[in-house]
Amino acid sequence: MSTPPKRVVTMDGGAAAILERLGLEDRIVGTAAPDFFKAFTGAEAKKLAKIPVLDPGQGNAEKVIAAKPDLVVGISSYSFGGFDGTPTVQRLAKAGAKSLVACDTNNGTTVKDLSETTTFIEQVAKVFGVEERGAELVDQITASAGKAKGASGTPVRVLALSAPPAAGQPVMVQGGAGLSNGIITLAGGKNIAEDALQDFASLSAEEIAKRDPQAIVVISGFSKGSDDDLLKSIRSSSVLAGTTAVKENRFVVVPQSLLLSPSVLNADAVTKIASGIHE
Length: 279
Description:
Helices cover 37% and strands 17% of the residues. It is α/β, with parallel strands linked by helices.
């Protein structure tokens, strides 16, 4: 864009928080998916709570377009036509709005860092002409992630999943090509499904037993129940009963908004996982 955008809609609270950290919250005319704000606290949470909510869900196309944005920003490509009711890039363009979305940066390789997040922050900062602020934010996040407890030494074998495994069924887990793998790696973990070069992978109960995770990262935010209920159901799964993680009761619950997509709080996920798997 030749001039920095003045009216921005964010398709999720994660994108809104990035703009807020870059000092651009006054450009946001509305957001969808405000549930991403739940992970924030203090003064930052209060700032984010002032952003108008266009849609409590994934981002209704009509409501997004009615806000008359000149730019729509999202942390997931699914927000642009992938989720039911969300606007496609083409539809936004017809309405006069540009689109900016975080993209995978792994190119079919194993993710070991937060480059998906840092690259997106740099892209957003460039669009708004605040590259210096973007560089400072990237440095802050990178430095914070680098201080994680237990990030050196022998990696702890980690299984990351968002739902309790069902007996006799393949277990859906986090693969090696997603941001979660980078966060687990920085936390001093070794994702047992890292060799699956995709965001999500499927492992059999036999394979999980063979790879024997020493810790389990429970991804919250998808289940309608409480985090405690989710943790309890995963801990009591017969599929996981023989693992070292269950025997030693080594679990860490992390919100999906911090683990699976670009966020200014990705380093917090690194710290939380590091503390949980090395205790």
